[in-house]
Amino acid sequence: MRKGLTLIELILSMVIIGIVFTVIPRLIMSMNQSTQTTLKEEAMYNAMAQIGMVLNLPWDNNNTQNSQILSVNAGDAAYNCNTTSGYRIGGFIGGRNCITPPLESYAAGAIGQEGDGLSNDIDDFHNTNITADKNCTGVVLGLFRIGTTVTYVIDPASTGTIALSTADQSPNQTNTKRILIRVGYGPSSRQSGCITSLEYHAFNIGHIQINSRNWN
Known about the structure:
Elements: H1 7-55, E1 128-132, E2 144-153, E3 176-185, E4 194-203
Antiparallel strand pairs: 1-2, 2-3, 3-4
């Protein structure tokens, strides 16, 4: 009865063990990288879906009831409607409800959700956070988080080089709202930090109204 391994068997065993210890860690690493890539894609798709939804909403709560350019208390005066010509810089005569009375009689609202509890305008999403659960029970903390802030920022210059501001002017009201969506890893993820951020500036331009005439 043989009590040991032949040289060939010993060499084959060493080769198999070497392959196992070489390939398996790489497979595990590859699977982890694939999982992290999927997590990033999922987080980014959710963030893009949210900013797309936000940008389709009215600029302010008062725009849900009327289409006028709203009055703000800290905007650049260059963007005010001219009460004589009915013209606003960057627009056209009679456009954007700049001449329709009552001119700029509706004031813009404060950042945040109104008492109605509805998310029906851009700034209603301020300080909202989304956490993706690892499972359906919600017991385990999220794999990624999406946080949204909406702030009034300084209006861009009406002439020369246009630079978009990031300086928060709230609670003062300007003609420019900055929507910032940050996407990061949640506490249940193996990674931490920021994945990406999405930014958009929305302006107080009212709603376009197109006049129609009947054909006789």
